[in-house]
Amino acid sequence: MLKSRIINLFLFLLLSGHCFSDQVYLTLINESSLSSIPRDIIINDEFAYVLTDSAFYFFSTNDPYNLKQESYNNLSGTKSIAFSGRMAYVYFGNEQITLYDFTKNPPVKKNSIQTGGKIVKLTIDNGYMYVVNNDIGLQVYDVNIPDFPLLKSTQIIPDDANGIFIKDKKAYITGSKANLSIFNVADLSKLPIIGSYSNGVNFFEIYVDDNYAFVPQGETGVQVLNIDKLPFPEWIANIFARKFAKQVVASNFYVWVADDKSVEGFFNNNPGGYFFAGNYKNNAVINRIALIDGKYIFVCSNDNKLKVLKIDYKY
Predict the structure, then answer these.
(1) At 53, is the secondary structure helix, strand, or coil?
(2) Which residues, in sequence order, are CB contacts of 127 under 8 Å at separation 6+?
(3) Considering only CA atoms, which of 265, 299, 294 is closest in space to residue 283?
(4) What is the mean pLDDT of residues 263-271?
(5) pTM here?
(6) Which of 36, 41, 230, 297 has the fewest CB atoms lying closer than 10 Å?
(7) Which domains does the chain have, with CATH numbers?
(8) Mapping DSSP to helix (H, G, I), strand (E, B) and coil, where does residue 72 land?
C-alpha cells in the first residue's frame, strides 16, 4: 500500500510538470563596486545605466562576463532618466527636465523644460514622454523633435504615485496606497481614466506583459491582474514571494521578482498558475533588477554593487 502511494505521488508530481521541470538556476558571474548605493537601472541601446546618489555609471550589456565600469560626472545625482534613441531626458530633482545628447562623450546638455513639482518617474514611448509628477499630475510631452518638446496634456493622478508603465496606448500608474489608475493616452485632449484597481495594501511599480499586469505589494507578494477586463481589472492569482516584493519583470513564461535580499523566479504555464522555479539569495537588499535578453539579470544591490546573474534554464 505504501509503495503504491509513493508511486502515485511521484506520477502526480511528474505529470504536473513543475516539480522537476521548468527550473532555473541563477549564478553570480560578475559584480562591480560602486561609490554609493545603486537606486535604479535603465537599459538602452546595449548599455545599462546605473543611478546612485553620487554617480552616474554605465556598462555595456554585450559581454556580462567582462563588465567595464564607466561614468559621467556631469550626470551625477540623476533621479530619473528616459531615452529616445540616443537622446535622453534627465531629472535631477530641481523641478526641471534637461535634454542630453548621448551621441557625445560625455553627453552634451541641450536645453531644459521647467516642470515644477515633485517628479517621481520619466518614461518615453513612441515619441511621447510621460512624467509622473506628484504635485501636478501626469504630464505628457511630444518629444518627436527632441530639441523642441511640447506639453500636450496633464491629468490628475493619486498624490502617492510611485511608478508608471506604458503599453498599447495605455498608461498604468501605481500608488503606494494601493492605487492603480489606467489612462487612455491615445486621447491626449482628455487623458481619461479607463480603469482602476485598489484591492490591496501597498502597491509598487507595475509591470505589464500581454494582457496581464503584475503588481508587487511588499510583504504579500505580487498580484496578477487581467487588464483585458476594463474598467475593472480582474484578479487572477497571487505570486507569493518570500519577504518583500517591490519589483517585477516578466519574460518568456517567467516572472522575476526583486524580493528583499533575493531574486525569485516563477514559471507560469497558464494565467492562474505560477510555480516557484528558482532563486538567488543576495547578502544585501536588492533595489532594482533588469533582464538582459532573457539570459542575464543585472542587480542593483544595497552593498554598493552592480551584480550580474546568469540564468540557466532546466526543462
Answers:
(1) coil
(2) 84, 142, 143, 144
(3) 299
(4) 88
(5) 0.91
(6) 36
(7) 38-252 (2.130.10.10)
(8) coil
Q: Find all residues with CB under 8 Å of 238, minimum gap 6, and list them.
A: 220, 221, 222, 223, 224
User: Cell for 136?
Assistant: 501636478
Asked if the peptide bond before residue 106 counts as cis, ω within 30 degrees of 0, the response is yes
C-alpha span between 115 and 94 (Å, rounded): 9
pLDDT score for 11: 37
Residues shown for the chain? 315
SS3 303: coil
Backbone angles phi, psi at 185, to 5 degrees: -85, 0
In terms of phi and psi (left: phi > 0; alpha: psi -120 to 50; beta: otherwise), the region of 21 is beta
Give phi and psi for 55, each to the nearest 5.
Answer: -155, 165
**Model confidence over 119-129: pLDDT tens digits?**
999 999 999 99
Rounded CA-CA distance 57/3 in Å is 59
Q: How many CB atoms lie within 10 A of CB 73?
A: 8
CA distance 3 to 93: 66
Phi, psi at residue 236, to the nearest 5°?
-110, -45
The Cα–Cα gap between 140 and 144 comes to: 12
Instruction: Name the residue among 26, 22, 76 with its Cα closest to residue 52.
Output: 76
From 234, 261, 233, 258, select the one nearest 245 (Cα to Cα): 258
Q: What pLDDT digit, counting tens, does each position of 4-28 carry? A: 444 443 333 333 344 445 899 999 9
Distance of CA 113 to the CA centre of its chain: 25
Sequence letter at residue 268: N
Q: From the centroid of its chain, how far is CA 290?
A: 7
